[in-house]
């Protein structure tokens, strides 16, 4: 059985693509945490709104896994940001909200 590191070593030319994807996953995760905290939501609350487990959301927030496109679309609607902003920008700014109400 090969590990992720071994696969990266054998693929050579695609190493840059793998590293790029990891950077994007981590950036997306940081943005998800930032947006969630800006809204004052716990991980469990956001997971419930997205209809996923808190553990799965945690993997996305830590950049361990890539969130599916359907989740990105839901996040876009919840936070009023473009999908590109979720993935590419850092840090994101959204209106300050206290427990679901605009401040």
Task: Summarize the helices and strands and which ones pair or pack.
Elements: H1 4-11, H2 15-39, H3 43-50, H4 54-61, H5 69-79, H6 83-88, E1 97-98, E2 101-102
Antiparallel strand pairs: 1-2
Structure write-up:
Helices cover 64% and strands 4% of the residues. It has 103 residues and is mainly alpha-helical. A two-stranded antiparallel ribbon has the order 1-2. α3 packs across α4. The N terminus is likely disordered.
Compute the CA-based radius of gyration. 15 Å
CATH homologous superfamily assignment? lambda repressor-like DNA-binding domains
CATH class: Mainly Alpha
How many alpha or pi helices?
Answer: 6
Helix-strand pattern: HHHHHHEE
Sheet having the most strands: 2 strands, antiparallel
How many separate domains? 1
Average pLDDT score: 80
Q: Could you write a compact summary of the structure shown?
A:
The protein is mainly alpha-helical. 64% of the residues lie in helices and 4% in strands.
List keywords for this structure.
103 residues, mainly alpha, 434 Repressor (Amino-terminal Domain), two-stranded antiparallel ribbon, 6 helices, 2 strands, 4% strand, globular
């Amino acid at each position: 059985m090969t590990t992720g590191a071994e696969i990266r070593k054998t693929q050579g030319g695609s190493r840059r693509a793998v590293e790029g994807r990891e950077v994007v996953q981590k950036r997306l995760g940081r943005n998800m945490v930032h947006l969630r905290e800006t809204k004052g939501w716990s991980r469990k609350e956001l997971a419930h709104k997205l209809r996923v487990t808190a553990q799965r959301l945690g993997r996305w927030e830590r950049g361990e896994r890539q969130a599916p496109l359907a989740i990105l679309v839901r996040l876009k609607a919840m936070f009023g940001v473009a999908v590109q902003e979720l993935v590419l920008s850092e840090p994101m700014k959204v209106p300050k909200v206290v427990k679901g109400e605009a401040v």
